[in-house]
Predict the structure of NAD(+) diphosphatase.
Amino acid sequence: MPTPPHAIGFTLDPLDRVSEKRDDEAFVAALRDEPSTRFLLFVNNVPLFKRTNGRDGGHDPLFDAHEAAKPGAPLQTVFLGRDADKRSLFALSFDEDAKSQFEGDSVEAVELRPIAMQGLVPAPMVSALGEARSMLDWHRRHRFCANCGQPTDSAGAGWRRVCGSCGAQHFPRVDPVVIMLVTDGDHCLLGRQPQFLPGMYSALAGFVEPGETFEHAVCREVLEEAGIRCTDVRYFASQPWPFPSSLMIGCFARATSTEIIVDRNELEDVRWFTRAEVAAMVDGTHEQGLSAPKPFAIAHHLLKAFATGELD
Ligand SMILES: [Zn+2]
């Protein structure tokens, strides 16, 4: 099995999450007050950045305590962890009004996806922003108890919600998604979703359902979307995908049938591609202009491993 490269986005978590200390309120409060502590600020799931060196400069997502206090009390606070230099990082969410508090200070809100895909901040910071986005989005959407309907409160440094009415505890969710490259000798199976960029094809993917193993989910999704039967499912690598809380589980599988029946509800097209064609798509040199996902996405690395023969 080929080694997953570091280029996969959201996989370079720079933080020690210190998860065993999350319930120690005094410990977490002391970290929050340390001068070296920094804060990631979000408004409606969109991170705020300080623009450094004017319009052509960089995007700095790290705010100090003084800067982070400008918009007033945050809606949510999550302790993300500490970096290698023991500097703590917290994520704070604010409502829409917060943005105006920064006007004139060269602060702007930019969606995380383009920030991440264009590499506008270093890869480890992209991972931390992804962790923050997933957690703050979870708080936004889980304010009421799924058991009794009453409001819940944040606990455990932001890693749990507790219902004061029925006592139920609620934990942040992760939604597993299998993404798989199905191969048949020198061919592999790729599909197109209608919203993809023109000419782009990628590995098939789908959510894992309750009661399924990853292997079952791979075979079910491939049969459902392309009518192809497969076997020999092998794990490659995984990728957190914080839109809002997926975990992409990259796999390879071997086809045992070849006749494609496309599920038009999900996909615009599914085809078999030769190894040479996939190599050209990954390199951006395909004669008809067909393309593959960029290195930021785990799909790119599934295709590349097949194209370069690393899989064999
Ligand atoms: Zn409840």
In short: Residues 145, 147-148, 150, 163, 165-166, 168 surround zinc ion (CB under 6 Å). The CA atoms of residues 23 and 156 lie 5 Å apart. The chain has seven helices and 15 strands.
